Amino acid sequence: MALAAAVSAGAQPPTFTSKVEAVRVDVLVTDKGRALTDLGRNDFEVFDNGVLQQIDFVSYEQIPLNVVLAFDMSDSVAGDRLQHLRSAGAAVLGGLRKEDQAGLVTFSNPVVLGSALTTNRMPVREALDAAGGAGNTALVDGVYAGMELGESDVGRALLIVFSDGLDTVSWLTPGAVLDIAKRCDVVVYAVSTGRAKPEFLRDLTSFTGGRLFEVERTANLGAIFLDVLQEFRQRYLLSYTPRGVAVSGWHRLDVRVKRKATVKARPGYLAGS
Amino acid sequence: MKRLASAALLLVVFHGAAGAQDVGPRINRVELWLKAVMGHEAGSVDESSELAASWSNADMRMLWIDASAIVQLMRNPKAASFSVRAEGETRAQPIRYTPAQLRRMKVLSCAAAGRIGDIDSVCADAAGELDPDLMRLGMLSRAAKLRGDDNYILRRGALLHADIAMLAPRAGEPMNSMPGPGPRQLRLEIADGRGVDLFLVATHWELARMLLDDVRPAGSTKPAPGRDEMVRLWYRATAAWMQWQESHDTVHLDRARAIFPADADILFLSGCQRGAYAAPMIQSALQSAILPTGFRFDLGSEKAELHRAEDFFRRALAANPDMPEGHLRLGHVLLLLDRPADAAVALRIALGATDDTLLRYYGQLFLGASEEVLGNVDAARAAFTEAAALYPLAQSPGLALSALARRRGDRDGALRELRRVFDLPREQSDRDDPWWTYYVAQARNADDLLEELRRPFVHAEVDR
């Protein structure tokens, strides 16, 4: 955990330094399914391994997004499914704000950078249109690349993964990538289609505070992706500098709000090597 | 060798009961079969193989039964009752023929065994009942016998049916075509870890194995395929071909090990097969496969298959310790079994015993993973770096180096390594990552083995 620090609340995009040991937590607060969007710093409590922390700042809709699409382009994604995926990706791009960045990673056997993070939608769209389905599924490798791409620039990183959930050829192991996921600030949402149990994606989305959608058909994929984007925008970004806890190891996080609500955030993070 | 298919295939075997069936076409097919065996040029698709390949699965199952009877008659011309026992079955099933059928079968067996004209109740007069082709078969079979090899039909029959299965397989038949006696084989076709089709295939491999079971080496009065070099090579070559094509057949190597229990190569391929069964590609397909009632895969969980693989690799290395790839693949299995220290030992033995670039790539990649688990970061980085140098267009070492850096908190280093992966050619065909073909690479010599197997039978002047 080595990102984050001072954030300007003004009109200029916030900047971060990499020197301060701060922890960022993306938090979704809902009441009866509706997002609560009027909370301030004093409404939150963050416990790191049971120790109440002082929250340095709370941000809502102020920090540009780094939205990385990590799409399965294997044999199992072809025909209508591929078209739906392209359309859904385009819908996400259309839902971004001017200052948001988008990037694309595709994976079959090879993990391919379709587009680096950019505020220009055109190269991402072109890469989406050019991607085709063939080969096996390096899901774990692709997810890793997507997470790293998401963290490659300042901003809040959202990784949207689409796959049939079956990894058949990755070099990296699910355990290794989950370990890395616990160390980074990327929030992962995933859409899995097919009969296989998407255990890796379930663990990944759980550890990063995101959500897994299991769908039978892909015709409605665009709406799901837009829901993901909207939900992510409704999340608060909390930052604090850990105090009174060990530097290394697993840190259990407990985020609370001082009113009746449901709080969704990652369950913890790994620090140190 | 160019890989022909990317799909993994998995075979399931089910055996039905053998029984009497209708007559004329059935015996005629045996005659056509004998001629096809004689006329087939090993390693080619010719009229003979095309004819036999055109027979339906039901025809092939019946032929398997009748070929069993012919083999029994070849060895015992006075046989009057017959039985067959399919692979995996404990009880033999009787075969019945009408008197006319039995006489014709005996005449055909005279030609197949090279006994035309022998002082024998049937063979003495058989010449008058055989056409020129069958007479020629009789001469060729006799000539082989005089050279000390009384296995003409058996060896060539096995080559014919292996060639059909490998070079010109008939399209699969739907499951509803199953009724009828004889062995049956189901095939599950797998694509990207999912079972995409399930169908019946003709039993060419079963017929070939049945024929070779009766091979008698020179000087032997009883079947002893385990002392026959051609049979050994046949199993090695065909099992390697199956693995190269990802056309897995558990029964094939089970039979090979029953005949050659201490053969290092066959044990090695058995370990590779079980290792492949443990891989996500097949394990995930198993989860999604829906089999008909009564069918099952002879496959266990990932852990169970890894333990089987370990056992086979250890037995292979006990039979031949000088097998770098055996140590390498044992090391990989041990890594997957969460025994990284043992894995590192095996991998270092492999790396110390080979200069082969491919094997060194695998060895360094696996050694890097073992060292990473053991917490030896520098050693892990060195091994991954070595692997990357061996195959600069491979992405796996780059991803490994990136993830290693990221887990150590070196975000810049992780990004730097990842950018190298992103800078690789985009197309799969332009990248060269042997990791993607690890589960078939053990069989990269399949073409050479097949050529070696077929060589004595191609344009064999001694047979002509």
How does this structure look, described?
The complex is a heterodimer of chains A (273) and B (464). Chain A has helices at 80-94, 121-130, 139-150, 174-181, 199-208, 221-233, and strands at residues 23-31, 34-35, 44-48, 51-53, 55-60, 65-72, 101-107, 111-118, 156-163, 187-193, 211-215, 236-240, 249-257, 262-264, 268-271. By secondary structure, chain A is an alpha/beta fold. Chain A starts with 22 loop residues before the first strand and ends with a strand. The model of chain A is unreliable at 1-20 (pLDDT under 50). Chain A has two domains: 23-61 and 235-271; 64-233, von Willebrand factor, type A domain (Rossmann fold). In chain A, strands 8-7-6-9-10-11 form a six-stranded mixed sheet, sandwiched between helices. Chain A is built from six helices and 15 strands. Chain A is globular. In chain A, 25% of the residues lie in helices and 33% in strands. In chain A, helix 1 packs antiparallel against helix 2, helix 1 (80-94) packs parallel to helix 6 and helix 3 runs parallel beside helix 4 (174-181). Chain B has 464 residues and is of the alpha+beta class. Chain B has 20 helices and six strands. In chain B, helix 1 (24-39) runs parallel beside helix 4 (99-113), helix 8 packs parallel to helix 10 (264-278) and helix 15 (357-374) runs parallel beside helix 17. The longest helix of chain B is centred in the N-terminal third of the chain and has 19 residues, at 57-75. Chain B is elongated. Chains A and B meet through strand 8, helix 3 and helix 4 of A and helix 11, helix 17 and helix 18 of B.
What would the average pLDDT of chain B be, to the nearest integer? 89
Number of domains of chain A: 2
Find the structural class of chain B using helix and strand composition.
alpha+beta
Total helical elements of chain B: 20
Order of helices and strands of chain A: EEEEEEHEEHHEHEHEHEEEE
Note the main sheet of chain A: 6 strands, mixed
From the alpha carbons, calculate the radius of gyration of chain A and give it in angstroms: 18 Å
Gap between N and C termini of chain B, in Å? 31 Å
Kindly state the mean pLDDT of chain A as a whole number?
89
Question: How does the major sheet of chain B shape up?
Answer: 4 strands, mixed
CATH T-level fold name of the largest domain in chain A: Rossmann fold
Number of strands of chain A: 15
- Kindly state the percentage of residues in helix of chain B: 55-70%
CATH superfamily of the largest domain in chain A: von Willebrand factor, type A domain
Overall body shape of chain A: globular
Which residues of chain A sit in consecutive blocks of at least 5 with pLDDT less than 50? 1-20
